[in-house]
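@channel sequence for tomorrow's demo:
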Amino acid sequence: MSRTRRNHIGVLAWLLVGGCSTPMQMFSSASAPASRIANLTWFMVIASVIVYSIVMGAMVIAVRRNRHRSATEVDLSKAGVRPVVIGGFLLPALVLTAVFGVAETALGRLDHGPPALTINVTGRQWWWQLEYALPTLGDRFRTANEIHIPVNQPVRLLLTSADVIHSFWVPRLQGKIDAIPGDTNDLRLLATVPGTYIGQCAEFCGAQHARMGITVVVDDSATFAQWLGNQLADGRAPTDSLTADGQRFFVTGPCAMCHAVRGTEAKAQVAPDLTHVGSRLTIAAGTLPTTVGNLEAWITNAKLIKPGTQMPVLAEFSGPQLRAVATYVASLR
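structure tokens (generated this afternoon):
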């Protein structure tokens, strides 16, 4: 075997192994629906390999039997219609019926019981708006791009879109479902393993489609209750002069024209709610880790990081003012 061919095989093997160990891989499921989808995928892959092998084997046998015969020696009029009916109609019909039956069983709706909470999910270019609605609370609160849910408790997601068609997909928890303008789709999550699961918009929705990530954090009951209590509270008050200056610049400057921080005069709902943005793992829908430096870069010129985003260029902040605003935003935990 040539070195080039060995290198190609090695690269292919590396891609296959790497694809099964990435955060977006679907074969290590953390919920019953994801497990059923993974099993269905393996069934279809194996069935496809078997059918392909049978077809290729039949072709090889036919070629070997007739490769020394001339065209005049092959009498197709005696072949009959039976092989055509069996190989071209009956067998494909049986295979497709079996695949349909298995798929229908695997993808049937699961009744998880009444949901512990409902989350209204709105896809936007290019981020996810989340509004939590709990059956035991009259209040609702908004966040963005990072969903927290309790383990082993059913959660209902009501998905729609504010602009174009998006698609919500967290491979280790559930299958894809579209978020469509003017319509609402219902998706249920029942995660069985605590952890952090990465998702992605799976429907091309514009220039920054690849940077429209979604993170689902599955917490144990105590951790989720603590997170929920924190999210229901107003934004953290400044504890030093730097964050106090940052809050003042935030509320009286252009930030408050689009963003909200509960407990302050910033109440706009155009862009993500930043009341507890400092507690999120990332900013800009999974684009950057949440750090003061990344917040400074994003506030200064978000379009340089995520071209096409509606976040304007904020050149009016001086260096010290920018550091104060970024420090204040990072402190909102």
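heads up for whoever presents: Helices lie at 3-19, 32-66, 82-106, 221-232, 241-252, 292-305, 319-330.
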